[in-house]
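Why should sequence recovery work at all? Because a backbone constrains its sequence more than one might expect. Tight turns favour small or flexible residues, buried strands favour hydrophobic ones, and helices have their own preferences. The token representation captures these environments compactly. In the example below, the structure is given first.
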């Protein structure tokens, strides 16, 4: 991996997940993570990461700047840091609902910017990260891809789809976890203890995902393999559909993107 020093501006849940994922391949001494309540980063500090509440220091010491702040904070922080961000920096934003044009308006036009949308599975190297840019060079896009490939997998998309990527890929973690929680609750109701139900549900979801990823099949093809005439699987699936399972999930996804785009 390229050993350019990386600063993660905003060491909250997502920023910290990115840091934890990067540490599998990146020297901790070449990473800065910032947070107002810097004591919450003590676990990273203990393994050699530079932790600080001083964003300016982190920017001055780094070549790659990953902004992982709350959307309402990014503009004020960028304007504070603008005098210190040069054309030699690569700016990567993982902030939802803040476009490349908005980012450019806060810094010099010569600064190359990449938007990225990973998810919290970055901490264990299983994120799916969508990347988009309008002015980054091929070399800098490759650098961004290399960073996020170390956190899972990456795909490049048009920036117009970044809100959709946020909902499907980042919010999607919560949707899937809620589904797993419901499976666990159902498992307990039919006789399993919570620990066993959690193991069965979690591994089953992991296995279902791998079937799609490795075989490249449509979900219905795999569903057909486990549904038999008058069987318990089709009876359960049909009851879920009668109760609005698929439509409620689709409505939830649409509601999430409408919330992002409300402004």
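From this structural description, the recovered sequence reads:
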């Amino acid at each position: 991996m390229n050993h350019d020093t990386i600063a993660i501006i905003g060491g909250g849940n997502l920023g910290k997940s990115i840091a934890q994922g990067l540490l599998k391949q990146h020297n901790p001494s070449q990473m800065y993570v910032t947070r107002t309540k810097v004591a919450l980063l003590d676990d990273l500090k203990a393994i050699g990461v530079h932790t600080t509440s001083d964003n300016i220091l982190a920017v001055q010491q780094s070549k790659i700047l990953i902004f992982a702040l709350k959307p309402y904070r990014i503009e004020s922080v960028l304007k504070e840091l603008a005098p210190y961000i040069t054309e030699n920096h690569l700016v990567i934003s993982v902030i939802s609902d803040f476009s490349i044009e908005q980012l450019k308006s806060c810094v010099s036009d010569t600064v190359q910017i990449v938007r990225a949308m990973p998810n919290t599975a970055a901490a264990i190297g299983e994120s799916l990260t969508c990347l988009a840019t309008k002015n980054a060079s091929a070399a800098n896009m490759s650098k961004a891809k290399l960073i996020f490939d170390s956190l899972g997998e990456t795909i490049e998309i048009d920036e117009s789809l970044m809100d959709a990527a946020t909902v499907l890929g980042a919010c999607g973690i919560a949707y899937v976890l809620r589904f797993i929680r419901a499976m666990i609750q159902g498992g307990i109701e039919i006789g399993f203890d919570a620990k066993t139900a959690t193991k069965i549900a979690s591994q089953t979801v992991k296995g279902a995902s791998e079937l799609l990823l490795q075989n490249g099949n449509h979900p219905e093809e795999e569903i057909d393999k486990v549904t038999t005439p008058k069987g318990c699987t089709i009876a359960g699936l049909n009851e879920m559909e009668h109760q609005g399972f698929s439509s409620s999930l689709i409505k939830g996804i649409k509601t999430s993107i409408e919330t992002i785009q409300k402004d």
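A few observations help interpret the result. The chain has two domains: 6-157, 165-260.
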